Amino acid sequence: MSCIVLTFPILPGKEESWRWFCQEISRSQLQVYLSSRRSMGITHERLVLVKNAFGSSSVITLEAPNIAQAFGKLIASQLPSWF
Fold first, then answer.
1. Distance CA 56, CA 79 (A)
2. Among 15, 44, 45, 60, which lies 20 to 30 A Cα-Cα from 34?
3. Where are the alpha helices (DSSP H) in the chain?
4. How far is CA 45 from CA 29, 52, 80, in A?
5. DSSP 54
6. Nearest CA-CA partner of 82 in 29, 44, 13
């Protein structure tokens, strides 16, 4: 199993939008989300909000048997625009 950790800054005033996104993928869009991850070979994903002196960031951990292939599929995916 291989893993990659990605960190993305959250712009000031956009933290609630990030929370809404997380709620959507864990509730109403859960099946679409899980299906997309399975099709890419991603076996586990964590999204965490990190706050520090520089502001807020979204830290994402992806796990897959072949992380390079899974990440390539994620980048090239045609996910819905809200995703």
1. 25
2. 15
3. 15-26, 30-40, 67-76
4. 15, 22, 18
5. T
6. 29
State the Cα–Cα distance between residues 75 and 18, nearest whole angstrom. Answer: 19
Query: What is d(CA 37, CA 56) in angstroms, rounded to the nearest whole number?
Result: 25
φ, ψ for residue 33, nearest 5 deg: -60, -50
Single out the residue of 63, 60, 66 nearest to residue 44, CA to CA.
Answer: 63
Handedness of CA 16, 18, 22, 25 (dihedral sign): positive
pTM of the model: 0.79
Please say if the pLDDT value at position 47 is more than 90. yes
Mean pLDDT of 36-62: 93
Q: How is domain 2-75 classified at the CATH fold level?
A: Alpha-Beta Plaits (3.30.70)
